[in-house]
Amino acid sequence: MWIYAAKRVLYAIPIALGVSVICFSLVYLAPGDPIQSLIPPDASAEDIAAIRRLYGFDKPVVFQYFDWLARAVTGDLGISLQSNRPVLDEVTRAFGNTLAIAVAAVILAFVLATFLGTLAAFNLGRPVDKIATSISTLGVSIPNYWMGIVLVILFSVQWRLLPATGMGGQGSDGFNWFEWEQVRYAILPMVTMAMIPLGVVTRSTRSAVADTLSQDYVQLLRAKGLGEGRVVWHALRNALPQMLAVMGLQLGYLIGGSILIETVFNWPGTGLVMSRAILTRDIPLLQGTILILALSFVAINLIVDLLQTLVDPRIKRS
Amino acid sequence: MTRMHRFRAPLIPSALAALLIAPAALATGPALPGGTLTVAMTVSDVPDWAGMPDQGFEGHRFVGYSLYDGLVSWDLSTSDQEVDIIPGLADAWAIDPENPNRWIFDLREGVSFHDGCAWNADAAVWNYQRLIDEAHSGFNPVDFARARSRTSTIAEVEPIDEMRFALHTKEVESLFPYNLVYVLMVSPCAYEAAGNDRAAYSASPSGTGPYLFGRAVPGERLELVRNEAYWNPDRIPQHERLVLLPMPEATTRAAALLSGQVDFIEAPSPDMIPALEGAGMTVVLNEYPHYWPYRLNVLEGPFADVRVRQAANYAINRDEMVALLNNTATPAFGAHTTNQRNFGDPYRFSHDPDKARALLEDAGCLPCDVTIGISPAGSGQMQPLPMNELMQAHLSAAGFNIKFEVIDWNTMIGVFIRGAVAHPEYHAINFSSASMEPLQFVKSFMKKFQTPGGSNWGGYYHPEAEKLLAAALESFDADEQDSLIRQAHELVVEDAAQIFVVSDLNPRAMAPNVKGFIQAQSWFQDITPITVD
User: Fold this and answer.
1) Can you tell me the ipTM of this complex?
2) Which residue in chain B is spatially nearest to A281 when comparing CA positions?
3) Is A143 on the interface with B (CB under 8 A)?
């Protein structure tokens, strides 16, 4: 398994390079110019040229790319054009903030989805199944930013139970999962973020568990007199690899940051950073964010693959 | 003739220095009110606090003018008068009677930076020199770029004595002091103590402004603390702490105010205002020098014909646009708002679609195909999508055939910077304007300032207005300047140089416990008088 893991890590290198080339090219192909966010609208042509030179944008794009790449492999992702802060600091801070609610949202969704999906599979066609399926459909169908706004109106504006925005009274620096005063800031964005994984994983769990229940060996288990609790355990264990695969993908999507959810809740994560970088053509920040996200996506998939091997010995890795 | 001085770095940090200086003020004045004012700004990041701010005028409004001062300041003390410049860190300034390119500044005595560094001619020279000289130890491309449109006309910085220095301009420019209100002075001692490294300086910035730096969480919040030793006792903050939060989404800002997380929000959306007022929030509006126009390409295409430009101005129903915006705007009848001293008495285009159609027919442009660049969002662009839809309806009813090209804000800025010559595909662009100071108006309508290098996007030229504005730039008599600009304004409005639509009223909302805010007629505001119960 360790050889397999090492190979997967090595595979991540060309993936990261490919991602960096693609995103660098796309940013330059898009209309707009990073220099435009740095200069006043009435700047003269000479001043624009001088500023372009000072920032290094007068060099050919290929040279700019290799300059960036040479620094990136040493961990230096450059300086954000807009904030003048190191990109690595900006991205790691935002990544940590998104990770905090994304992991919590995935755990919440996983627990609820396992319960609802299993319940539905054991009660196919009955009202319980219909309720679980409806919840799953709503989770996937309702735009999550709309859900976020509704939750804010209810829990923050009307009932004043939870804060509407931000990541704690002191910002993310003071955020602590073990203090209720801080955790309450994470509840609404976390619940909103959990809606789509809840829907997707409930459906996938229902389908996987129902499929397992239709197998002959389940009939045999029941015929041998096993209690329904043991049957559930067997069914879930067989469905788990599929659920893990779906959950891993969902976690990857969430870590990419939801621009809309993070905007609604003013949550200082990767979604907000990406949207800022795109709108201002902050190329170093965009490059750094995409690179970190791509690498984390590869890492998550690797972890999921390894977990699948652990929970299901039938899946062999060479 | 410039010379450089080194400054002694202070041995005490800024907050401690302020505490040492403060007792004098505390001993004589009444106890200052406490409280924390939490503001939700519209920007997506905390404006840069390490010198020249970013994030447009909002950066200057909340961060720049809180931590720093310029030689020249804005008078933001009233809500019923047009805002103009007043002495800041310079007590007085005058043009050298023998050299119309040499401005002499008398600096304010007894002012110190937050870190205790003295404000004097050496500090002024250091600040200006670093913005124009790449070889200067304090030079950095960030401040250079942000200040450039205000410093590009400076040819030389000249120290005169301990409290006087001079700035030489490359050509005669009577409106030059309006540039200086945007150029903010940082402590040379603090900068040098940080090794002339902007990032290191940002950990302990030091200006002369009414607030001291408290703490910052990058991208999330900036906390400033009252400077009790501020040199202008009338502007010592009436709250102990100021917390600035970037919050770009209007709905989020409104929710934050309604849930009690913030005390003061910028730019609530017009349709949220009734709900905010219903919940007991105070919503304030005021005219300020802003207008929302279509800037026209007069070099080629349909708008090269004055009849087409006038037809477009007749086609617009400005009152309906104001109603669309829930009365958070007023009709615009020119590049100045009606209460600005240089508005004058220009021709006022009424809503007359029949006249518009007749003019188009006369010009041989009926239907008149026009392509307009618009953006879905952007600084000062108000509610661009519904507003442009209404514009399309008005113009179509009068015989125009409007095609919109929607481009994002960054791309739009590029289109503006490069000018109509580089973008003949657009007959007009929707790009709002801040007609805050006379120089802005001059740069928008003089051929000499055709983009790039000015704000005259469409290459507008009116021979008589050009002469008047050129004369204004060379006149050092303020009344004469105003008179010349006023006349030029009347001419360009009659000539329908742009399609003037509405001026924003800049709504702001605050919690019931927030008192004392005076909304000046400006893009900038003085938040120091605010008390928070």
Assistant:
1) 0.86
2) B410
3) no
